[in-house]
Amino acid sequence: MSSKAAGASWCFYPADYKGYTIGNITGSSIGKSVRLSRALSSASLPFPKPLSELKIDVQEETETRIRVKAKNQIYICTYKFCHFSFDSTVAPMTYTDQYIEITVAVPTSNLYGLGERIGTLKLKPEEGPKITFWSRDQPPDPDRNLYGSHPFMLGVESDGKAFGIFLLNSNAMGLVKTNPVSVNYKTTGGILDFYVFLGPSPDQVIQQYSEVIGKTMMPPYWSLGFHLCRWGYTNTDNLRLIVNDMRKKQIPYDTQWVDIDYMDSYKDWTLDPNSFSDLPNLVNDLHSYGMHFIPIVDPGISNTVGYAPYDDGVQRGIFIKTHDNSSFIVGKVWPGNTVFPDFTHPDAENYWYTHAKAFHDKVNYDGLWIDMNEPSNFVKGSLTGCTTGNIDEPPFVPPITGDMIDKTLCTSAQQHLSSHYNLHSLYGHFEAKATYDTLKKIRDKRSLVISRSTFAGSGKYTGHWTGDNHSTWADLIYSISGIINFNMFGIPMVGADICGFAGAVDVELCTRWMQLGAFYPFMRNHRDRDGDGQDPASSLFTSTLPIMKKALEQRYRLLPYLYTLFYRSHTDGRPVIRPLFFQFPQDPKTYDIDRQFLWGSGLLISPVLVKGATTVTAYLPAGNWFDIETGVESMGGTHVFDAPLSKINAHIRGGVIIPTQDHDVTTTKSRTKDFTLLVALSTTGLASGELFWDNGESYDTTGGQNNNFIEFTAENARLKSKVVLYDYAVKMTLGSVVIFGVHSRPTIANFNGHHVPFTYDSNAKVLRFQHLNGDLLRTFTFTWS
Questions:
Q1: Residue 34 has pLDDT above 90, yes or no
Q2: Residue 124 lies in domain
Q3: Which residues are catalytic?
Q4: Most buried of 136, 158, 393, 416 (most Cβ within 10 A)?
């Protein structure tokens, strides 16, 4: 029944196959229910247990969200939580116990999302057969199913109107994009539970999606600083040398991480007594400097009697079990033979908290890095193999890398909620939730969780890094589309390992990567244990250290703007990083661009991504744009900008006001510095912006209290502020205002009715006010004429 032909269906159907026929249709106040009956006997298909009848509920849940759900008794993935036609009649539907197929017609070829994957941002027709969903320990290479599962797709029609389709299904899945444009879904089970989002703007689609999966967690302010890590520090003394070298060279730097080499025999919640016994003192030293610390934790628990996390887990019965529930399933990971916590078990979170708290009492960490949680397994299935039944050897497997039990557990393994067959791709999601809740209980303030494996909705609990990438220019390029995708998936706290995790370190590549990484939402430099270190303080980068510092200083200045974008994401569901077409959906030239991106709606980044390049070709959509460093104005169109190794091009869109702050070596220090407003006037002299400010770590600051919120507007040579909320007592000093796009030299300027000095650059058309010592928590007015 299989087909090897490129683009062909995985199954050939009989010529008279009709799938299901429509029966009774009943209506209600919120939608319709449709009864379907099979039109062919079950013996005509190679898949067992076809359903003879289906009930399809179509509900208009909101004005912009439609839910299409096929009801049956198969496992359901549950959550607590029109310009577009959803047409599934273009091909017959198949619905069996372990094989579901449906084809949905879409009105455009401009399709995005569907991950986790590596490739171009826009889906290409030839890439369709290679989009698969089954979480896997797989370095981020093209045409592979990677660490997470996000069956969400966004489309943009020729008139700029957008829609989204989300299939809430955690089973293994394959997708094919066909021509004429339709999307063919094939899953190994579960149900069909589609959400259709009607936008009509791309931003609104993501906001509507976030209403279903949950909005992103609000990160602590310090987590937006620079993070440093490597696998292979080997001992505390080596790590301390790097920390001290970073300080000595005054490199902005907020959080130090450690990989598995800090552990005793790679066992969770332990310290190597010989090499890392002094780690608690180093962590205390980091804290005294206003810095933070994050260790790695893997889910594989060594099944060694006498090891407390194992003994306790056995007593609680919270490890994943074999197919017959007779024993705990045993695999092999870094500590050797391992068992795996079942994070769907009702006592798993208490178990996780118990051992996380005991370790926190020894090492005062500020967040957790949860890795290897697909879950990864160094043996296939288990140490004793898997069953030969339909669960471990299903009748249909999508074209994933390997098979469903390769590098993970037997799919017949049993968890509290269901079999691993159904829950596999949710493992990292449930671990992230348990870890988020654990840290909240331990620290009682915002922490940072970064998870390798994610699912739709994981952004409520965790950020993500794009995995074990390579030190190549191609990986540098692909990191952009990966980060944009995860912002569409509702996980905006995302970044790639800067300079690459594996491979030889290249000075030029690493320098360019530090520049690009300065605009990742999550900025971490990390590499493996082989080869040279690639921390900025390394002697390898003596010649380019000033360039790296410049990139970091620029990031730290922009953190108030970035933090405000995260606030908007947390409260409204808007993505932090977005492609150009999100802001300019009616401009078809933006549809294919994935080597530039926007911070919010106002800052366009155009990095160098080619070895040896000293210029960058960038597309500026309609309007006026200002170089963030010089203030030089450019109009919409394609430009070739100078880009020597010392520069990454970033442009503020006319009409936007960006709040910034003087940089320092940590966010703890930079948060006390003066603010600067960068005012980019539109061609009609207008601009607006906003600033959210709180203590950076409490949980109760985003619900309309314990924070400050300020709006800024510019019009008719007048800049004014409005203090919308003042509920956080703190000093906020306005030190400077820089206004781009002032096309004639003023003769006089006033700040709150008083004359103030200014400077004017007649070439760049930039007006500057400095040394203002203004109070941002009092309404102000600037005028110039």
A1: no
A2: 20-213
A3: 371, 374
A4: 136
